Amino acid sequence: MRTLWSIFRDFIPLIAAFFIPPQIVGLGIALLIVGWMLYSQAKTRSLKTLTIINAAYFVIATIVTLFDPNTNILEYGLVTTYVILAVTTTLSLFVGDLFTIQYAKETTPQAVWTHPLFTSINRRLTVIWSVSFTLSALFACLTQFAILSGVAGTVLTYIWMIPGLIANSVLPPRMQRQFAERMKTMQPQELNWNPAIADAPPAEPYHYDVIVVGSGIGGLTAAVELAALGSKVLVLEQHYLFGGACSTYTRKGGFKFEAGVESISGLGEQGPVNHLLKRHGLEGAITWLKNTYEYRDGNQTKIIPNDYWAWRDQLIAEFPHERTGIEAMFTEIKACYDGMYSVFAPDRLCPRKPESMEEMTRFAEMYPEFLRWSTSTWKEFLDGFVREPALRAQMSMLTGYVGDAGEETPAGTMIALMGYFLIGGFRPQGGGGELAMKLVEKLREYGGEALLSQLVQSIIVADNQVHGVVTKKGVYYAPVVISNVDPRVTYEKLVGLDKLPLSYQEKVRRLEPSTSLLIWTAAIDCEFATSHLIHYSLPKPIHLASIDQRIEGFGIHSASALDSTLAPKGKGTLHINMLTKAEASRFQAMTEKEYAAVKAEVDRVCRELLREIDPQAADSILFTEVATPRTVAHYMRTHEGSVYNSKRLDGEASPFPTFKAPIEGLYLVGAGVGYGPGIEAVVISGGDVASQLGAFFAERKKIQTA
């Protein structure tokens, strides 16, 4: 109805012309009104076809009246009105700027304008109104020229409005409901299967409801969620530590190092990590230490305040000429972040996505800022607010947390990362492995099992159905397997490409690894100068000759400077990370002498960098280690040593890899599916798979307790 009111508003000039005497005055007022409407629409870039045609009509009518005041040009007002409408609606179908869509945009959030359903609804409505207006124009002409009697002609002129009015009220919600139903069932046929859940947990040894391959946080999330529902769950980890990248290992002298995770988000009120801990009574089980971020651009050091708005004020002081843009940008980020996290209320691990146009419209009306940027890059987002390169670099310092795309990182991903400043990034006291261990303990409390040093060699598949896994130490059986292993490794090494449909074999081959890291760790005989997470942008790139790579920046931090439990008293640990290509096979092909030369060069460069930042620490090094993509491939079991698993294949209806595999009973979680890398994102992925499976186990539990 709001759309109809918008259309009626464009008829105000016609009403003024027809009902304000004398004719020249009515036309003059109509011309002024339509002129103002044209100006307003042009200003907002929302010119309407009807307004343009009305303007042309009133200009011609006014000129004719000025030259011949006795001409009653409005005598054919009804005919004129319907002819204008018929021409406008029909013309809009051919030029592509649909008549009703011009008005629907005024009452619908911008986020839904590009939705195919929005266009489809308005195309149908425009066709209906085009036919209605054309028939009304025809009968108006027949009545005007006395071919039809006044009463009959008038009835036949107006009656054609009824189908249009009915369509406007009934068609949109009906098409929205139909679309929602299609979306629920619209997935590739090979993914249209349900897991084979037994009526009761299996009692036989080595038989389980669910086997989780890998104990990364995504896999542990799914395992704990499902075990809480009464399913018999087994987690198998190839390493001697649980947690994957979120594990903490000990070296000689009692120094503890993080395998990868340095900061965890998602602990705000609506954060999925927070929800996971609360759901399982773990909110008080971990002491969280808040990180502080430091940005270094050459010799310039910026400590990022722990208060989000204080950071804004600091940037304004540093870049006063960008004040307006900075203020608007920080407000926009906060609004986007609130919109993004509203879908996790009240305690969801995976987002509650709008399932219909009605829900999407309501969401868009509440959070237009988030949807405005949901398909943009971070570069496009920044372009909308600021220009200063140094400012943009500071705002983009966390892009390395999710890959090496820099400003080409999706804006939605970066808005989520802004949570590190809005809410905070944290590390568990005792190391990231504390989070993994608390989840393992909770899994065991629920009756689940978790085993270490269990390298899964293959996933058993017969007749396109999962039946279990084979390890070096034995065979374990289950109708459901959740792989927390890199998707390409899962499909190529554990399943076997020959078990996949041909189209999926090609998809797997097309998967590319994301970035990898060169990682330098050190133990020092003193405490490091700062507990900040330092993002260091080099004034001049460094060239690593041994691998012919250009290094433009580093990530540097001392976990023990914030958490004294990670090193002996008075001593410290250090991490320096450098982004590099995921080319584990290149490092594996090196001779031992060549590989040692790479490590020696990385060690030398990091020692020199450390001397610039903390000379005392540089003189107090006790021992160092260097990890390469080859190391990452071995311990994290990823394709080519990628730290964030495979890149997803875009340009498809459902970007591959998906949570569900084309093999019945096989699911994937982790950084390579769903929501990408980072503890928060993989918690969401584990929660999503658990929600898909959970309904079956919840129903079984309900029957058992009835």
- Based on DSSP secondary structure assignment, what is the total number of beta strands? 19
Give the proportion of residues in helices.
Answer: 40-55%
Helix/strand-derived category reads alpha/beta
**Termini separation:** 49 Å
Strand order of the largest sheet: 7-6-15-16-17-14-18
Shape: globular
Structure write-up:
The chain has 28 helices and 19 strands. The relative contact order is 0.11. Helix content is 48%, strand content 15%. The strands form five sheets. Strands 7-6-15-16-17-14-18 form a seven-stranded mixed sheet. A five-stranded parallel sheet has the order 9-2-1-13-19, with helices on one face. A three-stranded antiparallel sheet has the order 10-11-12. By secondary structure, the protein is an alpha/beta fold.
Offer a quick outline of the entry.
With 706 residues, the chain is of the alpha/beta class.
Tag the structure with descriptive keywords.
globular; alpha/beta; 706 residues; single chain; 7-stranded mixed β-sheet
Helix and strand topology:
Layout: H1 2-9, H2 12-19, H3 23-43, H4 49-67, H5 77-95, H6 99-107, H7 116-144, H8 150-158, H9 161-185, E1 210-213, H10 217-227, E2 233-236, E3 248-251, E4 255-258, H11 272-279, E5 288-290, E6 293-297, E7 300-304, H12 308-318, H13 323-342, H14 357-366, H15 368-373, H16 378-383, H17 389-395, H18 411-417, H19 419-424, E8 426-428, H20 433-445, E9 449-451, E10 456-462, E11 465-471, E12 474-477, E13 480-483, H21 487-495, H22 502-510, E14 516-524, E15 533-544, E16 549-557, H23 559-562, E17 572-580, H24 584-588, H25 592-613, H26 615-618, E18 621-627, H27 629-636, E19 666-668, H28 679-705
Parallel strand pairs: 1-2, 1-13, 2-9, 6-15, 13-19
Antiparallel strand pairs: 3-4, 5-8, 6-7, 10-11, 11-12, 14-17, 14-18, 15-16, 16-17
Helix pairs in contact: 1-6, 2-3, 3-4, 4-5, 5-7, 6-7, 7-8, 7-9, 10-20, 10-28, 12-13
